[in-house]
## 1
Amino acid sequence: MPVTIASLAATPYNVGAPQVINDVRATRGEHKMYQTADARVTITWTPDLNTTGMLNFGAVTDVNGSAYYLPYNDNLITSVRLPNPPPAGVDLFLTANMSGCKLFIDTIAGSADLMLYHANTHINPAPPHNSPANFQHPNAVAELTRLHTHAQNDYGALPAPNNLALANVAFLEKVTYYGQGTQEELRKFNQGRRLSYAGVMVNPEFTGGCSVFGFFNAGWHFYYQAWGAVDYDRPVTAGKVTKALFTGHWNYVHKARVEGSHHRASGENIKVVDHALIY
């Protein structure tokens, strides 16, 4: 069951955050530089037992594997160089799920290869309830940028001939990949939905993840896929159900009967909400 650009529209892929490949020591305590050959893996996808249609990532390191995998670490930035073209048999890149992380793509002067980075920070607490799904604290945004800038400098400081001149050509951040999740929150808000949290009614909340894939076909092309659902409480009363029956709102009636008042952001409700080209 290979991942394809077309399958990103319908199948949620949960990459999770397994280390999978051999870990490395962080340069300056914050930048893990993975060697290309060590990042090559053979992938298995298994159905998620609790989420309808979702496939979970698994892999083992394999010198003959068909993909490159880039892990992530809390409060660090990881990187790997993608050869262009890659060795025969390699046609996929992927990295750990993102839910606040930032992906950077750099070109390398004098080479067609690309440098990929996955930056993470927890310097700020989780956004408060009623924040849009794609909100990220400005200090966190600045920290992710700082991590990338210093990671670029790490490669530039390496001894020749590996002293690389890197230029950023694309990035993917939370404001983009959770943009549609935010629109889904707003749609439910405009329907009068709210969410009971610790006895207080707050705005509907999108819960999900973002997966990133690179496909090689006469060059590397990178896409993201955002998946998830909105957690909210629907008003369910005998009067509302009767009105819905009368007006033909059968979907509301079905969900009210099956789920009750609470719509869970889990199980069969998890869907692909967005997918798009990054670079």
## 2
Amino acid sequence: MPIYQPSEDSYILSETLERYLVSLINNIKKNNQGELINRSLTNYKPSQNIVNINDIKSIKILDMGSGSGIQAETCKKLGFNNIITADINPEAVKHLKQQGFKSIKTDLFSDINKKNKKQKFDLIIFNPPYLPEDKLEPKDSKQATTAGKQGYELIIKFLKQAKQHLNQQGVILLLFSSLSQPLIIKKQTQVLGYNLKLLNKQKLFFEELYVYKMKLTN
């Protein structure tokens, strides 16, 4: 089965992911700079739970449906070093391992576990199949493009499963399309207990792409 190669959706997600990760790094730098100022002016002793750059770059990241690995590469380029890639396509998994990533062959979260214990992540990135079914499309390409008859079923399934794999303050960066029944996705996202924030959007010839940040509310 061919490996999904980067396209417009991959690039908008990568761009958004990079901005998000850079903001995490910059927030830590800003906080630590404030800490240094406080220490220089007073006898204040920093608390033990202050996060440093090395801590933030070691957050546990899952690149679901990694394909060619563009999102994992974006993380790696910025120095993030605790990355797991996952894909249903064995050729993609082989390619990702050749690129030096830990990679798991899995259908969504079915094999994302360790010693019978659910793995949890601080950041889950997913550029899913997001189109409605086209019965004329070849079977080989459908796996990379089709999210179900209406274009959202796989995305909702992912969100249901992801709840069990997010750390308490964990974040999902999820891309989908105006062709994916976005109103249904957003409604179901809220029903599942997530809050969501639009981080990026891009208008294409026949659709609009959205990247949302999602966190559990409880």
